[in-house]
Amino acid sequence: MSGVIEYLFANPIFLVPILLLVATMLFAILKRLLKVAAIVAIAAALYVVLVDRFGAGVDLSSLTGISL
Prior knowledge:
Layout: H1 2-10, H2 12-54, H3 60-64
């Protein structure tokens, strides 16, 4: 493994495309994570609005018929 790293550092013509590929992959992963975080934030905000609008939420004992 160290031989490969030494070879890449000795020949930067091979190092640049590999670094560009890694940077592109990291950007794609971060972009997807930011999309997921935005969806979670919107869902959480909508949940807070729902609970605030309708009160404490659903009473589970009325749904199951079992007193909790």
